[in-house]
Write a structure and sequence with these properties.
This protein is mainly α. It has 4 helices and 2 strands. It has helices spanning 2-18, 23-38, 52-68, 75-83; strands spanning 42-45, 48-51. The chain has a two-stranded antiparallel sheet.
């Protein structure tokens, strides 16, 4: 019985580790943030416009939250979950 419980814990721990972003993903997302901060772009969010620095700060908070919840596994998953729409309005 104890062996089965230990095996289950190891399996769950391995699965949790697989849900964290890889070093490559972390680097790619970091490069996206750096490029965004340096751009002269303005971004519309829920009817208001924000400069690139504010947009980057907002996306960084979303990224940190999604990583904490183990929802970001790739750069593409981050873009899909956070960078393409508002999590509040869905737009």
């Amino acid at each position: 019985m104890k062996i089965k419980a230990l095996g289950l814990l190891l399996l769950l721990a391995g699965g949790a580790a697989a849900q964290t972003p890889s070093a490559r993903t972390t680097q790619e997302v970091g490069q996206l943030f750096a490029a965004l901060k340096q751009s002269n772009c303005e971004f519309s969010r829920n009817g208001s416009w924000y400069n690139a620095k504010k947009a980057s700060e907002h996306l960084q908070r979303k990224y940190d939250y999604l990583v904490k919840k183990r929802l970001v596994t790739t750069t593409e998953s981050f873009i899909e979950l956070a960078a393409t729409k508002s999590s509040m309005s869905g737009e």
